[in-house]
Amino acid sequence: MSMERYILSRVIQIIIIFFIVMSIIFLLFRVIPSDPTSFLLTPSMTAEAKEAIREQFGLNEPIITQYYLYFKNFFHGNFGNSFYGGRSVMNIIKERMLNSIFLVTTAVILSYIIGITVGKAIAWKRGSKTEKFFVGLGLWFYTMFTPWLGILFLWIFAFKLHLFPLGGMITSEVWIANPSLIEKICDLIHHLILPLITYVVLWFGGYMLLMRNSMLETLREDYIITARAKGLKEKDIRDKHAARNALLPIVTAFAISISFSITGAVLIETVFSWPGIGRTIVEATLRQDYPLVQGAFAIITIVVLIANFIADIAYAYLDPRISY
Amino acid sequence: MDTILEIEELEMSYQTIKGFVSAVDNVSFKIMKGESMGLVGESGCGKTSLGMCIMKLLPENARIMNGKILFDGEDIVPKTEEEMRKIRWKGVSMIFQAAMNALNPVYRVGDQIIEAIQTHDNISKEEAREKVEKLYELVGLSPERMKNYPHEYSGGMRQRAIIAMALACDPKFIIADEPTTALDVIVQDQIIDEIVNLQKKLNMTMMYISHDISVIAETCNKIGVMYAGNIVEYTYTSTLFDNPLHPYTKALMSSFPSIEGPKKELKPVPGEPPNLLNPPEGCRFYPRCSYAEEICKKENPEFVEIEKDHFLACHKVI
Q1: What is the model's pLDDT at position B1?
Q2: What total number of domains does chain B contain?
Q3: N or C: which end of chain B has fewer CB within 10 A?
Q4: pLDDT for residue B147
């Protein structure tokens, strides 16, 4: 198969999966044993008033019509308005997702780079004290409970040492005073550092252990002996021959993490009061803000599908043995 | 004639949980410039370990316990990794088995050969590429194939490419480790012809490791017979075939069919090779040897030159 055909077949698969997932979301919100409009209705309302509200949300239509309207509105980018505050769902998601990307995607990329670099190095020095130390450290952080470390960091660095703010993404006083762009960026970064460090500390270990294992497997391959026999420099054997091959399975892990990052890191965002998409979904669910949750699920579906699509293409590009 | 490689009383062991396994023990021999030596023996007799000693490409649990490996007059045993790095491929190169993953699957074959050249010779990528093109033609591959990946080659082509790679830095000495073992007989024959041709054309000095004595007979002018870590007999191919002296060599010969002459029942060598964790005292072959006597159980025979260029380790013949 040519690359074009491979991409085409993947696109078709993705479209099918998309419709399946969207249908599940549609059904999910209609089988939940509570009326989406229940919180708007009060017992004192007349039957006509209740019906008027249901009509306003299109809930009086037959289910097939609702299904049709659901997709129609989706393709027009219309997810309705939030039950709270009445803002357009699309706008809320856009804004919160950007906040999440700012924090979590940065954190994923950082922990990926650190994890891979350290994992590669310790696999090369297998059996050394350094290796044992990092494996232990990585496992320790990886299994640590996120809010616990987050609160610990907040307590030490924000509460005791006053190095960083206690939460949020911006200091409103600074932004009201009409600051310059540099001041704005500094303020953002000041808020970003602590949650970012927490995330990286918790997550680099996973990539590190993954890379170490993959690397150890690659180092047993015959082409590593060939590379040594050819008299290549240690660094070239490690980076060009071993790490290049060891990276292949890690690419998938990266794609999955990237899609997670866009859906937000609920725990980190909650501990640090970061207005990201993960926290938004949790809050919206608790408040039964149906349009917002439904819209967020739909967007997340698309993002995850696209991230996996990119991973597939990248994989095919990185490994010449994959035939399209 | 100049000596390229001289090995003196080499002993190499693998450290295992159960103790030291001496894979190469008391091995001595010489290879002159332009000669090709075949190393033959059963699986696990230490052929490949010996080859890897010469490149000093040993796994972490392997140690050279004793002896000297004089390459071009210099002992390489005490050399550091960095010093060895310069000798590898430029001094000694290796033809690996194509069935192994000897080529890195994610790089183009041509680039992997260029990489070897550029590591040792200070020349531009273009010059290196031209050199690889010539090497491809030399081993019977189309230079256009340089841009393909290893999985796009057939087994025979991969073997040719690996031969081209071994020749890339004009090494003084080449070790071929079972280069035809995994190929079907027709391709095997083509590759053997190719190696014999190249040997004549380039006056290559080489060591050919194989378990197949008939392959070695075709490619090499000298044969070393290895058994349980020892070389037991070493002489010219013709001498060895006309007048095999060691009981193991004799047994090995009668376990292979001959195309000429009357049909004979093939005789397998009885018994199994010894456990090298705990090799028998005395001659390592005596438990399987039909000529064994009292002395064979007690003393390991010395490896001596019993006639000109014919080395042997056996109590019986001396």
Answers
A1: 65
A2: 1
A3: N
A4: 92
Q: Which CATH number fits the domain that encloses residue B277?
A: 3.40.50.300
Q: Residues B281-300: pLDDT tens digits? A: 888 888 888 887 888 888 88
Interface test with B, best of A124, A223, A245 (most B CBs within 10 A): A223
Write out the residue range of the structural domain in which residue A277 sits: 98-318
Mean pLDDT of chain A: 85
| Substitution target from B15, B57, B101, B106 for chain A, most A beta carbons within 10 A | B106
Nearest-neighbour CA in chain A from B262: distance (Å): 43
A49 and A127 together in one domain: no
At residue A248, what is the residue type? L
Question: Are residues A300 and A206 both part of a single domain?
Answer: yes
Q: Same domain for A284 and A156?
A: yes
Confidence of residue A1 (pLDDT cuts 50, 70, 90): low
Asked if the structure places residue A90 within a domain, the reply is no
Q: pLDDT tens across A227-239, in order?
A: 999 999 989 999 9
Taking the Cβ of residue B115 and every Cβ of chain A, the question of whether any pair is shorter than 8 Å is answered with: yes
- Give the pLDDT confidence of B49-108 residue by residue, as tens digits: 999 999 998 888 899 998 999 998 889 999 998 999 989 999 999 998 866 789 999 999
| Residue A289 located in a structural domain | yes
Residue A169: both structure tokens together: 């993404």
Indicate the residue of B93, B106, B165 with minimum beta-carbon distance to A320.
Answer: B106
Q: Is any Cβ of chain A less than 8 angstroms from the Cβ of B103?
A: yes
Closest CB to B151 among A232, A234, A321: A321
Task: Tell me: do A235 and A305 sit in the same domain.
Answer: yes
Residue A40: its pLDDT value, please? 67
Interface A–B counts its CB contacts (< 8 A) at 70
Cβ-contact A242, A234 below 8 angstroms: no
Cβ <8 Å between B93 and A233: no
Contact B89 A321 (CB under 8 A): no
Average confidence (pLDDT) over B300-306:
85
Interface ipTM > 0.95: no
Q: Assess whether A200 and A52 both reside in one domain.
A: no
CATH number at residue A276: 1.10.3720.10
Q: Which tokens hold the place of A285?
A: 């669910």
Q: Does A218 touch chain B (CB under 8 A)?
A: no
Q: Is residue A80 part of a domain?
A: no
Q: Could you tell me if B149 lies within 8 Å of chain A, comparing CB atoms?
A: yes
Work out how many domains chain A is built from and give that number. Answer: 2
A17/A162 same-domain check: no
Of A75, A109, A130, which closes a domain? A75
> Are A188 and A291 part of one and the same domain?
yes
